[in-house]
Design goal:
heterodimer, A: about 375 residues, mainly alpha, B: about 375 residues, alpha/beta, Rossmann fold, 7-stranded mixed β-sheet, 12 helices, elongated
Chain lengths: ~375, ~375
Amino acid sequence: MPDWLIIRIFWDLTVTGLALGSIYALVALGYTLVYGVLRLINFAHSEIFMVGTFSALIASTQLLNIPMLEDGNYPYRTGAALVFFLVFILLAAMFISGVGAIALERIAYRPLRGNGDAFGAIALAFLTSFVIGLIFVNETKANLIIACVGTAPISYSYLRFFKKGKKAPRLAFLISAIGASTAIAEAVGIWGPNRREQYQTPRILEKKVLFSALGTDVRIDYVIVIVGALLMMTALTLFVNKTKLGRGVRAVAQDAETARILGVNVDLIIVVTFALGGVMAGGAAMLFTMVYDQSRFNIGFILGVKSFTAAVLGGIGNLKGALLGGFMLGLVENYGSALFGGQWKDVIAFVVLLVVLMVRPTGILGESLGRARV
Amino acid sequence: MKKSRIVRASALIIGLSLVGVACGNDDSTSDGAAASCEGVKIAFFGALTGDAGNLGVNIKKGLDLAVAEFNEANADCQVGIEAYDSQGDPDQAPALADKAIADAGVLGIVGPAFSGESKAVNGKFDEAGLPIITPSATNALLSQNGWKIFHRALAGDDKQGPGLASKITADGKMKVGVLDDASEYGKGLADIVQTSLGDKAVEMNSIDPEGADYSAVVTAAKDAGIDALFFGGYYAAAGKLAKQLRDGGVEAQLYFGDGVLDKGFIEAGGPAAEGSIIGCTCAPFDSNATFLASFRAKFNEDPATYGAEAYDAATVFLGAIKSGARDRAAVLAFIKAYDAPGVTKQLKWDETGEVVGTAVYAYTIKDGKIDGSLGLIK
């Protein structure tokens, strides 16, 4: 494509790039928060996003009874009904993703920190025996019975194994994260109604052109995504900077041991951190389904990698960095794929990351949740 | 000590094999020909799950129907079916192909369903001498590899591409964007369409079929001012693409190849799928009344893309088994000499494995359904 074309379509690409970038940024916040507090790369965060898209799907089709099509057209809603539906779906996705992130921390990470409790052990034991059952028997009822019977001995051994105070090596967290990520995605891919195929989400927002500027038609869904993401990020920043819990998050990020000595409940702060990341991912998931009308069992994978890239690009552990990194990545990808063709999209994203890391190894804004006054 | 153990072991083995022989004799004496068809299987190879799994499911149904009919008519020769679900993934296919080859009961394969996986495994099948008839893999180059076991039950993309291009030209389109999903099939077909269109074509590169956001392509399409767009790829990506093109205000007429001819396209594309034109070298599902009736009776639904082609492919294999072929070489020889009408076309193959009939049909999406009334292109 000749270069003069790129200039003409520049603003078009900017708008769509910013929209996708907002979603990257929201998901990146989850990586950044957890990294800042635990120095842990939570690879399963992408699956929290995926769970969010499915929550949005289930909330709209099951709870709100929105059909996929009405008389051969999209089931558009208008006015107050539209606002109510969008907010309801948003809250549902945020809630489920938040709960999912907390459960993930309990099951996959807390036992490794040496703080494993009965709850996490029982939940993990139930899942373990359920999966073992699945390998041998192919019937749901039998599987459930096997899982119930197997829970007691396995959870007992888990509790014995993860004795309080015994801390697993750093690498174990990474393996646990990758394992949890694969397990969640494959569970949806194997047992979901559409298996590994794509799911459609109903479209209730008519994608009208809101205004035209600089020769570009700006659609309402893009505006909602960008504004919505900025609002959510502002709320998060305020929470971290102005509330007592937020102060705890910053304190643990700076120095967990000192914070503990000074009376901060570190376990609670870690739960809060995961919950915040999960809620942001849920919000991103809802906005994503609104713009792209789709989900899949592995939808989180590439998006998660990109968001993680965005977090590193901006400086991992840095909230503003996640925002900047997300927007930058969205834009660069879009310009790049227009310039070189869509097949180069991912290559461009990672080349940019490499170049930035060569010049600034800690990302554009540097890494730190505690020190650099977010 | 050592010696006596060997003696005892061999005595045991001999004893057991005698029992085995005795049992085998029992079977064959009591039930004559049944033993001769025992363990004989036809395999399905392709995607039953995954991004284009619907197409594989259609094929499997055609195979199931043919085998069920055969088994009903031949009580003394029951043929089994083996399914190898590759998810359409060229990386997963080779291990499955090894499995199929190792199973001596598998005398023929209906598949591999897609071109990418075909390229990955047909060489293996050729080495093993395991005959295949694909009802769907249309990549033009597949028949140029010198594989003796390769046959397809429909014309390849070297026929479909020019057919589609002539349809696009006949529709009066002057500026046609050509896009693909970078797959073996999609890119191959898109390149042929582009070449056939000549200077009417506008190269638009590739998209990632697993990606979610195609806004860069939408912007490019809008800016190029195209009046038609051809996308080479499978239905899931095509649905997403159609939706985003229409959302972005691109009104160009959409054209696709046979990989999009599935209800999954309508599900993914919603109203944006309406009016799209889809080419296929596969016959309309209602082109053979007998096949249609028996398919409806068995599955309580209409056959879909490649169902009839799979039925034809299976029929040829079943004919070979019926004629007494009990090993892969005999089945292959039978196919090479085959010349009889199937439900979709005359089934006769040239030495490269291309079928004699080369019809290309056009389909459209009307009121949320696949409509075959556009009929034959050429």
